[in-house]
Each structure stands twice: as C-alpha cells, then as structure tokens.
Amino acid sequence: MKTRKDALITSAIGSLLAVGAFTLANQGVAQDAEQEQERCYGVVKAGANDCAGPGHTCQGQASEDGSPQEYILVPVGTCERLVNGSTTARTE
User: Fold this and answer.
1) Which among 82, 35, 34, 31 has a CA at the least distance from the CA of 71?
2) Does 89 have pLDDT greater than 70?
3) Are residues 46 and 91 in the same domain?
4) pTM greater than 0.85
C-alpha cells in the first residue's frame, strides 16, 4: 500500500507532466496566431464575416454567402487558392 508521501509525490509528478503538455500544445497555437493574415473577399458565408462591410459595422453580419465586399482573414497566400477568393473587394 502506498504511503501518503508516495501519493503526494505521484500527484505532483502528474501535475508537472500535465502543465508541460499544456505548454507545448499552446506554443503551436501562439505560432499560428503570429502568422501573417490577409483579407479574402468573396468567400464568406452569411453571418461569418470578420469585420464591417457594406450596410453594417460589425463582424458576423454578412447577409449573403459569397458577397464580393465581405471578407475573412486567412493566412497569406491562401485566398488565391479559394474559389471566388480575391484580396481586393469587388463591386457586383
């Protein structure tokens, strides 16, 4: 049977391993957040835009799918690979 001291040591080691794993997982998220972003127009789903657009001043208020004047932020170089994606707003 384990003593109380052994249980505390085991618990402490488990906690340290969990903190280490959490730190490593979050480093990848931080690197992704630092990646350069560009505006990609024409690929937004209704209600999923990233910023103000024609007729509204807030994100999430795009009224139609694929509006050429609404954008989302994507990693640089991604927009040109998306169907109807453009790095500049277009008039209909």
Assistant:
1) 82
2) yes
3) yes
4) no
